Amino acid sequence: MKARLIKLEEIDTVAIVTEAAQSGDVIDGITLLSDVPQGHKVALKAMKQGDEVIRYGVVLGYVNRNVERGEWINEHTLILPTQPPLSELKFVKSPSVVLPTPKRTTFEGYEVAGHRYAGTRNLLAITTTVQCVSGVVDQLMVRIKGELLPKYPHVDGVVAINHAYGCGVAIDAPDAVVPIRSIRNTIKNPNFGGQIMVVGLGCEKLTVERLLSEAENTKENVIILQDYEGYGAMMDALMQMAEAKLKVLNERRRTTLPLSKLCVGMQCGGSDAFSGVSANPAAGWASDLLVSGGATVMFSEVTEVRDGVHLLAERCVDERAVEKLKAEIGWYDEYLAKGSVDRSANPTPGNKAGGLSNIVEKAMGSIAKSGKAPIVEVIGPGELPTKRGLIFAATPASDIVCGPSQLASGITLQVFMTGRGTPYGLAEAPVIKVSTRNAMKEMWTDLIDFNAGSIITGVQSVQEAGEELFDLIIDVASGKKPAAEALGLNNFLCYFNPAPIT
Amino acid sequence: MKARLIKLEEIDTVAIVTEAAQSGDVIDGITLLSDVPQGHKVALKAMKQGDEVIRYGVVLGYVNRNVERGEWINEHTLILPTQPPLSELKFVKSPSVVLPTPKRTTFEGYEVAGHRYAGTRNLLAITTTVQCVSGVVDQLMVRIKGELLPKYPHVDGVVAINHAYGCGVAIDAPDAVVPIRSIRNTIKNPNFGGQIMVVGLGCEKLTVERLLSEAENTKENVIILQDYEGYGAMMDALMQMAEAKLKVLNERRRTTLPLSKLCVGMQCGGSDAFSGVSANPAAGWASDLLVSGGATVMFSEVTEVRDGVHLLAERCVDERAVEKLKAEIGWYDEYLAKGSVDRSANPTPGNKAGGLSNIVEKAMGSIAKSGKAPIVEVIGPGELPTKRGLIFAATPASDIVCGPSQLASGITLQVFMTGRGTPYGLAEAPVIKVSTRNAMKEMWTDLIDFNAGSIITGVQSVQEAGEELFDLIIDVASGKKPAAEALGLNNFLCYFNPAPIT
């Protein structure tokens, strides 16, 4: 494949090479002055020390020395610009956006009485109040899978909502609200069909009362291990409760539902310079189709949108959303400062190797997955949305923390874009993995569900790839198994706990 | 069983009841003025508002109102005293302590070339650099257990060192040193026989270089998933590496070793008012026997010793230990303050129900498990000791965080005291569970290994129970399986990460 240069906006002063290229190569009229790895940036013109480096039409930073046309621009050449100040963000009524119209407006899902969204899977979830009981629940999972699940063929599986929270924590610390609401809201994820099964120890700080309402906190839904005479007795009680829940879940059937019953999460991890050119714009197009069809789509990752926060504020539909955006991002700025770190802690070494020089460049690519739809609501990590449409859920960018946060907020399916490749998966909701470039898909044929590399090679437009991805999302929501689900690859749940361990 | 009062020191102004008692009951000459639950405190004399409440010979706090002789004293009656200031702690040469002499001075363990301690188990450990790969490693565990382990009968098992760290973190944050050294040192735990198997992704922040030396970072020890052509290829490579390690481990045999090769951790969780009267003093006696015999014993739980830190300083053998104690505890004070919490966040509701009114009372009970031996060294969470003897490892008190920290520091067996009961266990080292009272053992016969309740009922002295527990520790170190190990009950690993998530 012959290398090409991808320039995104007219005013850009750099472009990326679609293939690794050598010093002396002439690509699209530019002679390279050094070897340039795939996805990395090339100066489109000579720049003086301090000049702006522009990509996505946005200033990524300033060159720290004079640069010739055709030079490789990377993290060693760039000085980070100042972070956009939150105080200047204001609600401005923006011109209405015309979104593309989806060809499909329904999916086959599991409705849950009284719930805003429907499930895409039919799972028994067993939630723990505290990590102390996880050993027992792990053994329970083995027994349920071996002895009970085969009797209930309409149930897709059983998942343990094991987590590191619950005790040895300052339960009334101001930030404890984040993990507590995350666990509480996860119990109600539509993929769990409204069935509640909670296992507690009996002396933990995260009491069942903090997770369930009085009406829910019954002996049909809750088992406290300290109330049982030993391991044998507790396992008997747990198996009995699990079977009662499985019987109810086994009666559920998929029905044809409008897209307004679907809630999808967007995330990217192991990003490269193509993320913002291929996979994320394709996901953005699919997201616009979903929103246009009435669905709810969440995107997240505070540190990865921080440098483009003014672009998000411009898309907010009301002042409330802008104020919440400022509050959540401001809280995160302080949280990082308390730990003596700042946004330069991101990107990762792998991101840099993939051509992403700094967090501004990563942010522009990250935001692309949200499409062009207006942002109807901003929520904190693990909070429940109150609207349908495009929602910014202000979670950490860490893949393994963002996933559980979005699950808590109600997603029933996640779309995961990756450039470097990760076997990421969730047991609680199917995850569709989208690669940014052909090489990734060719390398991991059995792990990648959708390749957006065709956009890089010019075989498909963003629109075409986006429509195809939208189709796959509807199919997976309706029961089709993506690779991670078929292979049983699941990350364990890491809820965001910004409060201290005691 | 008739209720008795347990008074610990001559100057104590409260004593605890050994059984639940009713208003009007006369116990050891004192008429109770209200119902008093088991393990709770009774005023031995009338006190005026502001008077000292003394137990263990130490001021637990001050009464917040006038109190009559025979009244129930609990968390609602007590005002917390000021925390001992760290600045006043100084090294003072203390009178030498005479420790009891153990009857056994050897155990049957697995020596590891070049390691200070020997293993008590022969395990294959597979360490992950980042949570992204844990789904693959979980599937690998299933295959190894099914296909490989049966061929290597001298290997006790395989464990995944899965953790929530590795990416989505500020890897160069000042506090990142804690999780990084914890994971790095865990790899070298003697129970893993010096065999190294690390699974990385390829784009994570916690690169293999941060965990292994150049000599260790070889293709025989490390697999990077992004280097393989898909899931099938990575699983083949992983199975091949695991089998190579199993072959080496399968040659290991137990040999008779001096106690100086043993490293034991002490921990308590789900404590009650009896913890400091029965289980912990018995563990303290066993600890003194171990130390006297040349072994290393670690105790931990910063927030639970904070209010007795002056008592620890007095037992330190040199100025270096005292200064390290001040530094570690001071760091923790600041860490809690940053999260807007303080030591009053501990104890738990279960502790209070068990009679522990506040953190001072809990601390006195907690420290009892360290016996009377001098403290030869103080280490930070996840650090390696450089000496043998009694060591204070300054980890959080959270059971599920203290355990992995002690494993990183080299323990090969843990003794876990519990009053309320927890099914806690570690896959990486056997855990002996010690109950504080008969009722606990009677309730959880199949989960508790050793009952120290006989001390409460006067059937055994602390010395007798301590000697019996010491015997059990040597037996378990030599291969005997305690309940959690036999039942396969294991907590997953929560490494302490005080640095921010990004």
Tell me about the biggest sheet of chain A?
A: 7 strands, parallel
Distance between the amino and carboxyl termini of chain A: 56 Å
- Give the DSSP E fraction of chain A (strand runs of 2 or more residues): 15-25%
Mean pLDDT of chain A: 95
Features:
homodimer, 502 residues, alpha/beta, Rossmann fold, Archaeosine Trna-guanine Transglycosylase, Chain: A, domain 4
Mind explaining what this structure looks like?
- Two copies of one chain form a homodimer.
- Chain A has 502 residues and is an alpha/beta fold.
- Chain A folds into three domains: 1-81, Archaeosine Trna-guanine Transglycosylase, Chain: A, domain 4; 123-249, Rossmann fold (3-Layer(aba) Sandwich); 258-487.
- Chain A is built from 14 helices and 22 strands.
- In chain A, helix 1 packs across helix 3 and helix 2 (177-186) packs across helix 10.
- Chain A is globular.
- The termini of chain A are far apart.
